[in-house]
Amino acid sequence: MRILVTGSSGHLGEALMRVLPDAVGLDLLASPTTAIVGSIVDRDCVRSALAGVDAVIHTATLHKPHVGSHSRSEFVDTNITGTLNLLEEAVRAGVSRFVFTSTTSAFGRALAPADGEPAAWITEEVRPVPRNIYGVTKTAAEDLCELVWRDHGLPCLILRTSRFFPESDDRDEVRSTYPDMNIKVNELLYRRADIEDVVSAHVCALERAPEIRFGRYVISATTPFARSDATAIRADLPGVVSRLYPGYREIYAERGWQMFPSIERVYVNLRAREELGWEPRYDFRESLDRLARGEDPRSRLAREIGAKGYHAESTGVYTVR
Fold first, then answer.
1. Counting Cβ atoms within 10 Å, is residue 306 exposed (0-12), middle (13-18) or buried (19+)?
2. How far apart are CA 15 and CA 311, in angstroms?
3. pLDDT, tens digit, for every residue of 275-320?
4. Exposure of 99 in the CB half-sphere (CA atoms within 13 A)
5. What is the CATH number of the domain that holds 141?
6. How far apart (Å, rounded) are the C-alpha atoms in residues 3 and 43?
7. What are the backbone dihedrals phi and psi of residue 202, each rounded to the nearest 5 degrees, phi first?
8. Number of structural domains, the chain?
């Protein structure tokens, strides 16, 4: 199966190219994992790149860190028009399946419950309320995937991925309170995935797309929480984690780490596990076990790729690309 991976010079794109060595990469930026240097906004470039292609994994996008550096029209051009170009040219080329990388950021304001309310339980049934142009354009691109599936029968699966980037947290108060790896391991409880698991979700989606035809899926590490924990994790997260993982405090204490006092949402990956046959490995339990053995809690793939960055020049906590 000949696969086109868009955004192949980026963080997820490179990871996919390492796992799918026969795939063809398309990106604006030249790199060892990019065979075609060009823009998805360029319809002729897209048409040429899709010649002889059987499947598309579309990861190319302007991301949340670009909101402050790129205009809304640039977001529309890349995230909406670029996706439409790929979808329509995929139909024209007779592509058999299309996997679109979306984001849990699309849920936007639905992720923040009011004071005193339980943590938000985020499944595919939650209606997105986009917070910024990034969320607006990603949800619009999702809708284009559904439209093209309905109109032309192109199997399209949408993966709403949670955090998997290695950059530091963009909130000053969080970075100043917790070590970086402490933050990332905490987030595996509710809002983060290891890139190796994100890649395996895309591979599963490729395999299942012709059978499923269309679907949206939350891709995040498997949470240990039940919905009945939603009030408790908002009020006393360390207490709930202690109940589920009695030895975690000792492992954290050895490193001077802390658990967050509270969390406001939980991403639930049950549908992806059941329908895609996806088996994510890197959850909070796995990280604790690795830390107890003195090992890095990240996957080999995450360690090898490292940080990619988003901008040509340094912008706050985001690295130079």
1. exposed
2. 19
3. 999 999 999 999 999 999 999 999 999 999 876 555 444 444 444 3
4. 31
5. 3.40.50.720
6. 18
7. -65, -40
8. 1
Residues of the chain by 3-state class (helix, strand, coil), percent to 5: 45, 15, 40
- Please report the sign of the dihedral spanned by the C-alpha atoms of residue 189, residue 196, residue 9, residue 207: negative
Contact 85, 43 (CB under 8 A): yes
**DSSP secondary-structure letter at 108?**
B
Determine the straight-line distance between the first and last CA of the chain, rounded to whole angstroms: 31
The residue written with tokens 């604006």 in the block is 28
Per the structure block, which two tokens stand in for 132?
Answer: 């910024």
Which residues lie across from 311 on neighbouring strands?
A: 320
CB 24 within 8 A of CB 36: yes
Q: What is the pTM of this model?
A: 0.93
Give the range of the structural domain holding residue 57, as residue numbers without chain letter.
Answer: 3-305
Element containing residue 266 per DSSP (H, E): strand 265-267
| Residue pair 4/26 in contact by the 8 Å Cβ criterion | yes
172 found inside a domain: yes
Which residues of the chain form beta strands (DSSP E)?
A: 3-6, 24-27, 36-37, 55-58, 97-103, 120-122, 156-161, 214-219, 265-267
Give alpha helix (H) positions in 54-132: 72-75, 82-93
Give tens-digit pLDDT for 95-154: 999 999 999 988 877 778 888 899 999 999 999 887 788 889 999 999 999 999 999 999
Kind of pairing, strands 120-122 and 55-58?
unpaired
C-alpha span between 137 and 78 (Å, rounded): 9
315 belongs to a structural domain: no
**Residue 316 included in any domain:** no
Beta-carbon contacts of 225 under 8 Å, excluding residues fewer than 6 positions away, are 189, 190, 233, 240, 244, 266
* Residue in 275, 262, 284 with CA at minimum distance from that of residue 124: 275
Residue 312 lies in a domain: no
CB 184 within 8 A of CB 128: no
What's the token pair of residue 301? 């793939």
